[in-house]
Structures are given as structure tokens and as C-alpha cells.
Structures
1.
Amino acid sequence: MSHAHRDHLARWTNVALVLAATAAMIGVILRGDIGLALDAVALLLLGTLPALRVAVLATRWGRSGDRRYAAAAIGLLFLMSIGVLVVASWR
Amino acid sequence: MSDIARDLLIIGVALLTSTIGSIGGLGGAILLVPLLTLGDMTIAQAAPLGLVSVIAGSVAAGRRQTDDGIVNHRFGIVTELGATSGAIIGVLLAGSLSNTALTLVLAAVAFVAAVGGAWRRGMRWKPDPTLAASEVGERHGSLAGAYRLNGQVVPYAPTRITLGVVLMAASGVITGLAGVGGGFLKTPLSSEVMRLPAKVAAGTSTFTIGLTATTALLLMVIDGRVDASDAALVVLGALAGGTIGSGLQRRLSPQVVRRATSVVLVVIAVILVVRA
């Protein structure tokens, strides 16, 4: 991964982190329905970040011709989705 | 205890466990969950908060670790394919084996990994003075890479990938069966079996445990087991902890990271034996 790509990924993660931390902080202070909604926003932001990171990497690797690892990343996202569906329906 | 004191305690405990977890790529849940149950929480209530702390710590540490080039995303994704497959099988088989026996197996694995990490002397991969700072990062089309250490560039190329992925899948089955995160197995497997440098193993494990925790948390959200108010407190503590932990890891030598990881693994083994 090039330095520019690393910088881009780090900056992109940083923005999401600041948003999540702000939402969690205001949610904790406000409490009530608005606070709970902001807590949920913080969780949603953080919960989707790791999978989004893999999706961004898959796209980047696919575009740069690194198809084997792009396929591995897509395969992992697929496996995670299948895992959630199988386990959720199994229980 | 007042509400404010309780909230501050949750933030403080999440901060501490995420800091420790981010240094060695072990995640903090296995330390956070038992600590939360010392208060007014049951394991069922504390477990989702453990996952939230792992995700927040992983994302916070990942920001700096990605910038430093110590996360090998290709390696993480390939090994995670094995770990996730194993974890799905493990979750589906859950209940078929004695929890006590499983927990003791996990404790034994953590202890062996701790001894293995502490036993090894010196650095496996040496700095290459011919490499420029622009070489830091992972290689296109390969699992090899280079990372920055004390102003020098250290190249590395992991080995025994097939064996490592098989072992990751086996660790996934065990962690899925026991219902614990696998960070404390992934870091030693990456560094001792597949010969990734200790810092890269820790950084890459921090990235992959975030993925595992996301999948598990989604299942708990479906089950309605996540308390968003307590989770927000853990988010605040773990974001700070992940940032502090990755900052500390940057300053520590690989040997110190390896030894610190070994110490935490012994603590985890003791916690598991007590829980069993």
C-alpha cells in the first residue's frame, strides 16, 4: 500500500472516529431519547467501519490489478455476511 | 454508587483494557468482561460491551497503525478467511462440548503462546539500510512488506501460510465454541508460526479482531442484547485506550511488545482458569 493510500485510509478513519466519539460524548451527556439515538449513531458508525475498510481495500486492490487479494477481501465480506445469516437463522 | 461514578468507572475500565489490548493486538474484551461483572453486570450484559470495546479500540489504534505501515491488510484478510470460517463452525457446534474443558484448552493455548513469545530472543527480521522510507507498507500481490523501526526500514516475508491459516481456522472453531474473541490466539499464531514481526502481528491482529467483533456484535444486536447507553460509555473509553495503546506501541521495541504480550497472555490464561 502506498504512503498516499495509507494517509487516505488513516484520514478517512479519523473523520469517522471523531464523528463517533462526538456522538457518543453528546449522547452520554444528554441522555433521554436524543441521547440514546446519538449513542446508536456512534455504535453504527463504529460497527460498520471495519467492514467498510475491507470494502475500500477490495476496491483499491481491484483497481490496481491485485485481483487475488481483492477477491480474498470480497470473499471475507461474503463469508461474514453468510456467517451472520446462518448463525441468526440457526438459533 | 452514583450514576456518574458508575459511568466514569465503565469509561475508565474500558480505557485501561483497550490500552493493554491495543499494545499486543489482543483486544481488551477478555479483560474487560470479567472486570465489568465485578460490578452490577451479568456476563450476558457485559459480553456485547466487550465486543464494542474491541471494535472501538481496533478502529482507534488502526488509524495510527495504518499510518505507521504496521498493519498488513492482505495478511489479515487471508488469515481472517480461515478464522471466520472456523468461528462460524464453532458457533454452530456451541454447546456440543463442555464449556469448562474448552475454557481450559483456551487457557493452555494462551499460556503456551506466552511462553513461546517470551522464550524467543532477538529480532527475526533485521533492518535493511538500503531500503528507503517509501518502501514501508505491504507489497502489491504478496503478503510481504516492510515496517519502520527507529528510523530504519525492516523488510519481512511471512512463511508457513497454509499451516497458519489452518491453525487460524482451528482457533476460530475453539473461540466460536467458547464464545470468546480470538485476538490472544491470532497475535502469537501470526508472529510465532507465520513469522510476522511482533509489531506487525499486533497491528494486523488489531485490525482483524475488529472484523470478528463486528460480526459477533451484529448477532447480539439482532438478539437485542446491546445496551446503547453503556455501549457509548465503553466507546469513549476504548477510543481513548486504542489511541493511547497504539501510541505506546510505537515507542516500545519489538522485544518489549513481545514480552508485554506474553505477560498479558499469562494474565488471560489465569482469568480463563478462574472462570472455568
Note: Chain A has one domain: 3-90.
2.
Amino acid sequence: MSENTDSGRSDEVEAAGQSEHWVRDWFRRSWGTSKGTGGFRFEAAIYLGTAAFFAVVLAIYWFTSYEGGGAVMLLFTVCLGLLPGSYMFFWSRRMKKRPEDRLDAEVDDGVGPVGSFPDQSVWPFVLGISIGFCALGLVFGPWLGLVGGIGAFCAVAGVTMESRRGGNI
Amino acid sequence: MTLLDDRPAILVDEPEHHHEGPSGLYQWITSTDHKVIGKSYLYTSIVFFLLAGLMALMIRTQLIMPNNTFGSQQTYDELFTMHGSLMMYLFAGPFAFAGFANLIIPIQVGAPDMAFPRLNLLSYWLYLSGGLILVGGFFVSGGAADFGWVAYAPLSGIIRSPGAGPDMWIAGLILTGFSAIFTGINLVTTIFYLRAPGMTMFRIPIFSWNMLVTAILILIAFPVLTSALVMLYADRHLGTHFFTVVGGGVPVLWQNLFWFFGHPEVYILALPYFGIVTEILPVFSRKPVFSYKGLVFATLLIAGLSTGVWAHHMFTTGVVLLPFFAGMSYLIAVPTGLKFFAWIGTMWRGHLTFETPMLFAIGFLVVFLLGGLSGVILAAPPIDFFVHDTYYVVAHFHEVLIGTAVLGGFGGFYYWYPKFTGRMLREPLGQTHFVMLIVGFLLQTMPQYVLGLEGMPRRIATYTVAEHWTTLNVISSCGGYLIGLSFAVWLVNLWISWRHPILAGDDPWGGHTLEWATTSPPPHHNFYSIPPIRSERPTWDMNHEEPPPGSDVQGPTGITVR
Amino acid sequence: MPAGQDSPTPRRRSYRRAALVVIVVAGALVLAGCNNLPTFGTFPPVTKQEGDAYSLYQSITLLAMVIGAFIWALIFWCVFRYRRNRRNGQPVEAGAVPKQTRYNLKWEVAYTISPIIIVAGLFGYTVVAENQSTIVHKHPAITVDVTGFQWGWRFDYPLPNGEHITVLPKGEPTPTLAQVTTGLPALIPVETYPTLVLPEGEMVQINLVSNDVVHGFYIPEFLFSRYALPGITNEFDFTATRAGLFTGRCTQFCGLYHTEMQFFVQVLPPSAYTAWVAAHEVPIPKVPLT
């Protein structure tokens, strides 16, 4: 994820206030009904909706067929929806609406650095080709995998150093 | 609004380069700019497409007469395997979800680049090395993989498919699989985190919505393929018995795993092109897209249902639950029908003009309808029992895939070419390409339905005179050659546009979405300025009356919808 | 969501009426024509089990054709009626903008609901047909064990008296080495394909299995195919309703000589079948083919 460094676009953490009606407040915050939160609602809803949909499909599938393979794959699809979905849900109820979540946002609301976008880098090329050699090692023997592995190691090191230096931005 | 009639002006020199930096091969290799990567993807996948097309022509040549000996059976098996693999894994998918998505998505949502530029570049190089390994199978002893693009176990096991070719097929697909997963992550993140202010989720263009849903489908489907391939490799070389009866494995497990990837894959190939068509139709009808939220809903529903129908490819195995998969498959017809009516509603009472992209979009509607309806027929298990694995199915999926990936895809190519090169393609040549393509395609495909019903199985190398399949096969082959020729016309069009450029201008079509509000080709980080975003078509709003902030009011005579 | 539409003018109402008429006529056509429809390119089925599948195919194909024609008509109507350059016989000026309709809730609901109804009807019919096609009777008259192998078929008839009839491809089941090395497609002569002999009018249970890879047991004129899977035996019934000679093929790609993996199906009248059994009955033990 690119770093959102500017306050105008940042994910501001709202101190979670303790309240007696915490369940109600929790739902309000979750779906953006309370003021000042509820950015990111649809994004979370897409993943959670995916999870919910496949949970229903999984239930129907399992109780009509009792077939293991498909059920396991559907179960993992539910998990795939839940994992990012619950993360986004967690943040959506602690996060102000971003300019891109507001219908009336002006372009100026989003000024400031959006993120860091490295302009060019030779390492992805090296890494891609090295992994290609590793894959060829599966076919023609481990020595090719060794060649690819060394290349991949150099590339990962290279890209890490590049990031630490700030890269070619 | 710029019209085609006022535009032509021959350029004296090259279109301006807005981006400083290294040029030539080094830039192509190292640039993490999404436009450069997108173009690399686009042209690489088109090269694979032409290669697979040549294989298709060889297949059609082999089938043009009974008892033909154009190639040996072994060659024929390799050809249809690699034709399918190249088209499915290396062309139809990456052409849209990596090529067009990289080029267009960041601009459409108002982002400066993709969220992870270096990951993006890595996924291109994984894709290219995977593709080269896959094609390289032809150059090892024993030849390329020859078990069909679905690689059913135990035929794909080490005993019945020895040699390096099948292993290269597996290795290449693992690489392209990872490339697709990385692109999927990149797309989701870009659309979720990098939209321009005011670009709410219900204002991103339908193409971006479809790419988002495609990316989620990729995340669901491709890991299953990659794990299945690893299991297959382990079966072949590490002595495991996932798919062999001898060691207690279950061969049908491969089919379950493969189609759990394979059916979402079909929609990974289709949804982006639905998106492209949904971009083209409103622009050339001068209307907003009809039923925006309905289309979003339909896309999500198609994606969801498509992951629950994998075993409709396995009806004839006798070990799957027929009513569940038949019902789910039928249900997909509902959101797909919804899309059709939304497309027709978009054209309804518009001011239609028929530039090449619009021709391709309408061609897509006409052809995809045929494929869609035969798909509904195939969803009935008792019918599938007698057309499964025959040319009926071949005709069905070619109509679906050529309708989407070729008609939709090249419609998108004609539509966005001016944006990413700054030049126009020639209209007459584009129209010729379209007419030859669609005539050739219908000639090729419609006889195959009849052949299938008469009992011609797919993947047979030849047939005899006694079966009376000759005439239909000749028609089909001639249609195939016409498709081949139509792409020669397209190449000529590209060459002319390269040698004698016509300046496109920023907005040659009167586009609706953000990419038409920037220059052609777009500058580094895409925008000098972004117009205010008040609806899903900010460029239209900019060129017409701008609606007040905070509302979704649309256009001069539009209606208010919240 | 406001519809954003004016109240229907007489002309618009006439369009709707026309659409309604088209739908009603199409529906009537489907209902009336069910008994007497064309084959749409396929074969009238030989077996009793595929009767419903056949009529399902006929009606669904007709329905698809009607719906397809309707949607094509809508597409081409848009293309010809709403061309900008020829609108109402005269070109529209370049800057003019059509009405910017974005939603029309009534129509959206209508075109969502109607496919659901059609699909639900189809689903009901499909379940009936597939049950007829896949149901396995407990007491078949005859059982035949069919084994697919690279590249041929073996038909094994266990007889009531404990003996067997085994039918194998005659001659070489696979092409010669010379044919492989020259690379020419080696069409096995038709005479060598094995023949599955079935009695007319009696229920036959087929137990289908594969010896090596996945094969497809397909008889076009029976309107039926089923995979021969290694390790899993598939069972299904045939009750042939007329005598004749039919061809069968392998549909699932199974390796180099997939093309040659063909067989014949000979449906004989019961008396002729009995004679065939008597002529071929040989007391050989059932040995698994390796």
C-alpha cells in the first residue's frame, strides 16, 4: 500500500470512545452513520459481500452434495473475502471519509503527496527473469534453479536498497 | 466535442513526448510507468494471439478435408493444446486485465500510477518469461504439451505424457498465474486507494468496476490453478499420488480443481470486455450508460455465480450434483440478460454514429448473444450429455471468447489507440477489418454447431468421407482463413498509422471518462489537471454543463439520482 | 429512484403493445409447437431414457431462437432507427444532445424479473429430463460392462449362466510402429472397431469404467455420453426403441489415437439378440485387461 502522508487524504484514527451502547455505536460507526467516519464503506462491503455470498453457496452446496473438494475451495473463498474485508471494515469505522468517498469533494481536497511511485527500476526485470530460470529449473534440473535463485536474491536485495535510498522517484 | 469529420491533419513530426527519461529498449525494460507496462502487455499478448491464430489456421487446414495428412496426429495434438493455452492464458486474459487495465484504469479513476509500480513491472516479466517457457515447449525434444489446455489427469501424468514439453507447460503456467495474481492485487489496491477526490465507488466508470470485479475473481481463481499445477508437478516428479488411481488418488480431483479455476477464468476473460463495450456504447450514442447501478450489480452477481458453477464442465463425469450446477448456470443468464438490456437501453434514443470501435461493440452484442444463448442450452445436463466435448461446445465457447476477447478487445484497441499513441487508425481499414472478421467468424463457427449435433467430437485429428462432415468443415475452414486475413488488414492499418500518423487530439471520440480529459498520450503521472468529478463521466460534464457539487445530477436534461 | 420518463405518449404505448404481442406470440408458439417441432440438427433419440432430453432440447432451442431474434431485433432497431446522421430522414446538427436517460426503474425490474421466470421454468423441466436420463433401474434385463482403454473399447456381457461374452477391437487396437514413426494419421479400418450389441426394447444397464485415462463414451444417436473414469464405475440404463446400426466415439481427448477410438452399436430385435448370444457364448473367465 502506498503511504498516504498528507493529512488531507490520511486515514485518521478516531479514538474509540467507550459508551454504554457500544453495539449500536459500533454499527453506526461501521456504516458511516455517525459523523466523521465511514470512509471506505463500499470497499469493505464488496469483500464482506463476497464472503457472505460464498458462505450461502457453501451451505447450499455442502448440504445438497456432501462433496469435500468443492466445499473446501468454497470455504477458502469465504476466507478470502473475510480476510481483507474485515480489515477494511475495521478501518472504515475508524476512518474519516476520504475525498474519494465524498460526493461533493473538490479536486483541491486531495492536494498533497499521494504516495511514492518509483519511476524506473531494473530490479523487477532481473527478478522476473531469475524466477523464470527457477521455473525452468523445475524442468531441466536444479542447477538452473540455483542460477535463478542467485539472480533473484540479487534482485530482492537491489530493490530493497533502492527503496531505502528512496528510489528513482 | 470533436468530431471525426473535422479532425484529419497530417503530422509533420512525431507526437510530442511528454516524459523525460531514458528511451528505447532500456526504458521499455525498466520503466515502471503503468502506460509503458500496459503497452508492453498489450503488444506481447497480441503477438501470442497472432501465434495462436496461426496454430488455429493450421488446425483448420488439417480439418479441411477427410483423411487429411497435413500434419501428424502428434503435431495436431500439440497444436490444439498450445492454441488453447496461448489464447486462454497468454492472450485473452492479459490482453484486458493486464494490458487495457494497466493503460486505462489509473487514468479512469484519476490516479497517477498503479499502486505498486515495481510489482506491476515484475508481473509483466513473470508473464513474458512464463509465456516464453510455454511456447518454448515446441523446441524441446518430444514436443510441446499435448494433453489439451485442460490437461486432464491422468493423461497429463508422467507415464502418458513424458518429456520436457508438459513440464514447461506447467512451469510457464505457474509463472503467468503469479503474474495474474500480482496484477489482480495491484488493480484492487489502485481502485480502492488511489481514486481522485469525488470519484466515489459509484462514480468509477463501468470498465473500472468490471476490472475490479475481475481482479477479485483472479484472486479467487488463480491460486487454485497454481496449487493444482504444483500438485500435478509433484505427481509427475516427486512420487505423490494426487491424481493417480494406483496410489489411492482421485483423477476427478484434477477436474474439480481445474474447473474451479477454469470457470471463473472464463469470466475473467469476459468481464473486462463487457466493460470495454460499456465504455464504447455510451460514447457513440451520446448518452450516459443506462442502468449504471444495475450493471454494477449484474457484474458482481455474474462474478459470484461464476465461481459456483465449475462442475457444469463435468456433467458427464457422473460424479457431480447435477441440479445445483444446472441451476447456478441458468441463473447466470439473468445478470447477463440484464447487461444486454442495459446496453440496448444505452443505445435507445441516442444519436448513434458508427466509427470502428462502435462497429466492434455492436458486433460483440450480435455475436455474444449467440454464444450466450447456446450457453443456456448447454447448462441443461441432459442436453449437455449429447453435445459435451463435441463441436457444439467448440462453437459455443468460440462465440463467447471471440465475441468478447476479439470483437470486444479489438474494439477497445481501436477506441483507446488514439489515447495511448496520440495517433488515429484509418477508418476504412478498420471497417474492412470488422466486416471480414465478423463474416469470417460466423462462417467459421455456425457450421460447427451442426457438426457437433451430428456427433463430431472435438480434438479429433481427422474424419472419414462416410461421416458427411466435409462440406461444413470446408465452410468452417474458409471462415477461419478470412479471420486470418482480417488481421492482416489490421496489421496494415497499424503500419500505416506508424508511417503516416494522423494527429488524434486529446478527445477524438467525445469521450465521457477521465482518460479523455488528459493529453494523448497522457503525460508522466497522467494529468496536468483533473476536472471536478460529479458523476461517472467527468469529461462529458466538463464539455457540457457542470452539475452542482454534492449531487449526481447528470447532463443538461438529466435526472437526479442519489 | 425516479423513472425520469414522461407519461407514455400514444406512440410509446403502441411500442409496448407491440412488444407484448411479440412475447405472447412467442410463448404461444413454444407451447403449441412442443409436440411437433423440428429436430434442430440433432437426432430423434433411439433410447427411451432420452425422450425428455430431446423434447427439452427442442423447446429450449426454439425459445433461445425466439429470445435471440427479439434481442437482435432490438439491437438492429437501435442501429437503424437511432443513427444520428439519418434521424427522421435528416441529419441532426453536430452539437445536439439526446435526452440523457440514466435509469428507468420499471423497465429494469421488468427485464430482471422476466429472465428469472423463464429460467425457473427451464430449471423445472431440466430436472425432470435429467432424472429420466440418469436414473438407474434396480433390475435391468441385461448388464454390460464397458471398459475404455488407450485406444479402444471392451464390452463384457456377464450371462446368467455364469459365462461371458467379451467383445474387443478386432485386429490391432493401436496402430503399428511404422505408422507412428511416419507420423501419418493411421486410420484403423472400420472393420476393426468393436460392436456393442444390444437387444431392442429391453433395459440394459451399462457399467462404464476406464482402464487408464479419462475417455468419453458417446453415442450421438442415443443422445448420450458419459465419461469413462479410471477408478470410478458409472452406471446408466439404455432401452433402445428401434433396431439399427449406430456409431459411437470417444469424446474426451485421451492421447495420440483419440480419433480412432470408435465403436459400433448394433441394436437387434430380441430374437436376433438371443441368437447372437447363443453364437458367441464362450466359457472364458473374466480377466481384467491390462
Note: Chain B has 15 helices and no strands.
